[in-house]
Amino acid sequence: MSHQKVRDVMSDAVVRIQGGTPFKEIAHLLLEYDITAVPVVDAEDRPVGVVSQADLLHKMWGRLEDDTVDAPEAGRRAAKAWATDAAGLMTSPAVCASQDWDVVEAARVMAQEGIKRLLVVDAEGRLIGVVSRSDLLRVFVRKDQAIRTEIVEDVLVKELGESPSAVHVDVAHGHVVLSGRLSSEARARELEKLCRNVDGVVDVEFRPVPDTAS
To answer: What is the per-residue DSSP string for 65-85?
Structure first.
């Protein structure tokens, strides 16, 4: 049992710029491709930063004095406000993901960094794609039958070594209902935990079947 990989859900059509790309060209690219940010790469196509809409908008208000921010933040805003190319505008370093990460790891890094997308790089650190929050959400539109098959074949049989008939598995809209009888309560809890880690699962309920033997 394993989660989908970043390479399976990322977009590989990536608009990119270099440090010398001028302000107005960046603005045109964001509007033309209807994107909110664009990665900045070096001569070897390795990401060095990202320029977002917010970075460009510093040109409008970043030069204004603001008593609510500390000196370092004020300095950062001012630098972006006076910048004329990607090197001066970008937020750096770029937060990147390996194409071999699973979607859970990518989601965790996005949450920790408070960002909406990750640049995806290959083993040499070169840009090959972008994965966004919406890409990760595709996991939750996975078909119920595919979820059920993974639970029965990979979780119940391969991971736990149980018979596929030991537990009945129902899946509806990502909600998993397990009904059956396992060798112990601990075993049932382990099954429930493993099911919660299956891509596309929203919730899991285990309904033990009482032993009717006399």
So the answer is: --TTS-HHHHHHHHHHHH--B
Residue corresponding to tokens 């382990």:
190
The sign of the CA dihedral 113, 115, 116, 118 is: negative
pLDDT, averaged in runs of 10, over the chain (214 residues): 87 96 97 95 97 88 56 72 93 95 93 94 97 90 94 94 92 95 88 93 88 56
Domains of the chain in start order, with CATH, are 6-139 (3.10.580.10), 142-208 (3.30.300.130)
Q: Which residue, 153, 157, 161, 198, is CA-closest to 176?
A: 198
The Cβ of residue 92 has, within 10 Å, a number of other Cβ atoms equal to 12
Helix axes 71-82, 53-61, angle to 10 degrees: 90
Residues linked to residue 120 through DSSP beta bridges, in sequence order? 97, 129
